[in-house]
Structures are given as structure tokens and as C-alpha cells.
Amino acid sequence: YMEVQQIEEKLKTALKPSRYRHTLGVAYTASCMAMVFGVDVHKAYRAGLLHDCAKGFSMEEQRALCKRYNISLEGTLTKSPQLMHQEIAPFLASDEYKEQDSEVLSAIACHTTGKIGMTPLEQIVFIADYMEPNRKMIPGLSKVRKLAFEDLDKCTKTILKNTIEYLTECGQEIDERTVETYKYYRDKKE
Ligand code: DGI
Ligand code: FE
Ligand code: FE
Ligand code: FE
């Protein structure tokens, strides 16, 4: 077990200053959302801290880490290497940052694509990552920031809709999990 302060010190040396700043933004934003929705504030803070712990590694290093952790590099990760850090994160958090809480690990494991039937903690990390205050302003962000403290399902749906639109405009491959998560929250009954 590592104290939060130790985790922060280690992340500060592992990540670029701008990424560390984003990391703290996600940790604080996720903890505020946890207070609103009755989720464990310390789990939200730790998941926020650890979600991008693999981002300090180059793409080459991330490929090597995928091999070490038996994460398949075929298919989705070949087309979208920026998703590798999501797959590596729970292994690295467990090995290097001694995180043992399965809810924290599962929240960081789906922070980029989301997944069907997310727990409130998983949704909070997914949402906080998108809208923490250090993120640069993009269309629709003010609406997402308001929804984040009102309705987790609506907020999740809006983020995925915006992300799919953005990736389509850039001509980037959209992961099937991103699409199926969007459809799940689009069709979910209140
Ligand atoms: O790691 P962050 O920059 O904090 O944010 P993130 O982990 O949510 O997303 C990393 C990048 O991945 C971001 O530019 C958006 C992109 N992304 C999200 N969903 C998909 C995706 N890229 C592809 N190719 N496919 C997706 O489904
Ligand atoms: Fe990320
Ligand atoms: Fe994200
Ligand atoms: Fe992030």
C-alpha cells in the first residue's frame, strides 16, 4: 500500500508537468463528483491520480509494456495506439503504485473508451478526465461540466457523442467499445 502523498511524488517524476497537472485536476474533479453522488471520495481521488500513470512512457515503451502484461497488440491497439495507456494503466497502478482496490483499478481500465454498465466510480473518472479544469475549452464542454454534477448517465452519453463526432472529423478509428458504450447510454432508460 502506498500513501497518496507517495503516489503523487512518484507520478510527478514519471509524468510531464502538464500531464501531472491534468492528473491532479482529474483527482480533485473526481472527488468533488464523488461527494455529490455518494461515492467513496478517496477511491475517486486515487483513481483520478492513477488513470494516466502509463502516459509517461513513449509509444515504444508502451508497446513493450503491453507485451509484458500479455495485452494483445493486434486489432484495436494497432489502429489506435493512444488507447494502449488505458490497457496498461491497471497493471502499472497495481505493480508500480501498489493499488489493490479492484474498483479503483477497474475505473482506470476503462477511462478512455468507457464500457457498458459502468459503476458510478467508473463514470466519474471517465467524466472527470474529459472535463477537469485544465482541459482546453472545446465545443459542448460547459454543458458537460454542468451535467457532470447533475446526471452521470446523460453526461457520459454527451461525452461519447462529442468524442465520436470529433474522432470522425479527424478521420480516426473509433474503438468498438466507444461505440457500444455510447449506444448503451443513449438507449438507457432513466
Ligand atoms: O489520456 P487523456 O488525454 O487524458 O484522455 P483519454 O485517455 O480519454 O483519451 C486519449 C485520447 O484517445 C484522446 O485524444 C481521445 C482518444 N480516444 C477516445 N476514444 C477513442 C479515442 N481514439 C480512438 N482512436 N478511438 C476511440 O474510440
Ligand atoms: Fe487517458
Ligand atoms: Fe477520457
Ligand atoms: Fe487523462
From TrEMBL:
Q: Which UniProt keywords apply?
A: Hydrolase, Iron, Metal-binding, Nucleotide-binding
EC numbers: 3.6.1.41
Q: Name one Pfam family in it.
A: HD
For this protein, what is any one GO molecular function term? metal ion binding
Instruction: List the InterPro entries hit by this protein, alphabetically.
Output: Diverse_Catalytic_Enzymes, HD/PDEase_dom, HD_domain, YqeK
Which reaction does this enzyme catalyse, per its entry? P(1),P(4)-bis(5'-adenosyl) tetraphosphate + H2O = 2 ADP + 2 H(+)
Please give the SMART domains that the UniProt record associates with this protein.
HDc
For this protein, the record's SUPFAM superfamilies field holds: HD-domain/PDEase-like (SSF109604)
Q: Where would I find the HD domain in this sequence?
A: 19-134
Q: Which PANTHER family match?
A: BIS(5'-NUCLEOSYL)-TETRAPHOSPHATASE, SYMMETRICAL (PTHR35795:SF1), SLR1885 PROTEIN (PTHR35795)
Name of the protein described by the UniProt record: bis(5'-nucleosyl)-tetraphosphatase (symmetrical)
